[in-house]
Amino acid sequence: MEKNKIRVLFTIPNFDTAGSGKALLNVASRLNKEIFEPHILCLHDRGAYFQVVKESGIPIHVFDYIPQERPVLKMVKQCWKVSRKLKKINPNIIHSFHYSANYTEAIASRMAGAKWTFTKKNMSWGGSSKNAWKLRSMLAKKIAVQNTDMVKQFYPNSNKTLLIPRGVVIEQFEQRTPNPEIRRSMRTTSDKRILICVANFVPVKGIETLIEAFETLRTEFSNWVLWLVGDDDNDYGRRLHKMVNEKNMNDMIVFSGKQMQVVDYLNHAEIFILPTLDEGRREGSPVAMLEAMANGKVVVGSNIPGVKDQMKDKPDHLFHAGDVAALIEKLKPLMAKSREELKQIGEKFYNLAATEYTIEKEVEKHEEMYRKMMGLPN
Length: 378
Hints:
Elements: E1 6-11, H1 18-28, E2 36-42, H2 50-55, E3 60-62, H3 72-89, E4 93-96, H4 104-111, E5 115-120, H5 130-139, E6 142-145, H6 148-154, E7 161-163, H7 170-173, H8 180-185, E8 193-198, H9 207-217, E9 224-229, H10 235-246, E10 253-257, H11 263-266, E11 271-274, H12 287-294, E12 298-302, H13 307-310, E13 318-319, H14 324-335, H15 339-356, H16 359-373
Parallel strand pairs: 1-2, 1-4, 2-3, 4-5, 5-6, 6-7, 8-9, 8-11, 9-10, 11-12, 12-13
Helix pairs in contact: 3-4, 9-14, 12-15
C-alpha cells in the first residue's frame, strides 16, 4: 500500500451482468488516486464485463469470500480463513456491492481488521432475510443507501447511513445521430415513433403492465412501436414473448435481446417507461432511468421508492405501479405530441440528470463516506 493512501477493496459476486459491475467500476476508477487506492474482489473471472474491469488496471482478486451462514461453527472457521486472505490484500475499507442480506463477508472483514460498508441496492428487507439484513447492517461501519425511502423504512434512527443515489456518465449517454442499422435490426421503419423500456427482465419490472397499456393505445397511435431492450433469455422473457404473440403484436412490440450499448437504442426513442411493480425488491436508484434522462428522453415511471426520488421534480410523470389505466393516462397525451414538443420536454429531463445525477456527484459522496469511516475531515 502506498504510504498514507486509503486502500478500498470493492467486493462483488461476479461480473455476469454489467449493471452492478458497471456501477462499481464507475466509482472505483474515478476515486481520487492521490488519496485512495482501489482494489476489486469477486468470486470468479467469468462474465462479459470482467474483461472490461480487467482492462481498467485496478488490481483484481478472485476467491470465494462469502462463507455459508450455517452451520455456525463451520461459518466462523471459514470466515477466519477468508480473513487471512483479506489480510494479505490489507484494505483499510471493504465496500460490498452484493445485493443480498449475506453477513459473513462482514464478519470476515472485521476479523481482517478492515472497516466494512455496503450499498443497500434494493428495497428487500422482510421475510426470512429480515434478521440477516439487521445483522448485516449492525456489522457495517457505514451504509450507503440509494433512496430516501430506505432511510425511512429501514434506518429511521441510524447515524450510519449516507444517501448516495446512482450517477451516470452523462457524456456517454447524450443524444447522438441515430444509427439506422439499429432500426433495421429492430424491424422498425423510419416513419415509426418509438417508446422504449430498458430493463433487467425479471418479474418485478412489471413489463406486462406496459404491454397491456400499449395494446390499448396502439389503435389510436398506430405510428408508434414499443421496443423492449434487455436480456429476454429467461423464463420471464419467454412469458413476455408469449404474451406479445397471443396479442398478435409482434409487428408493434420488438425485443432486442441483451445489449451492452443501450444508448444506441435510446437514440431512436422519444419516450422511456419504467413500469416496476411496488412489491419485492423493487428499485434502489434505477440507472436505466437516469441513462434515459441523460439521453434527453421523456421519462415515465411507476410511483415507487427509488423512481419517485429521481422524479421528485416531475411528479406528473409518475403513475400508480401495476395500474394499466393509470399508465395509459400518462402516455396518451405524450404520444399525441409532436417530436419537437417531446424533445423540449426531454431537454428538461436531461438537465435534471446533468445537475443532480452525474457520476461525479456519486463519486464525491463515496469519498465523503470513506473519509468519515477513517475519521478524516471532508
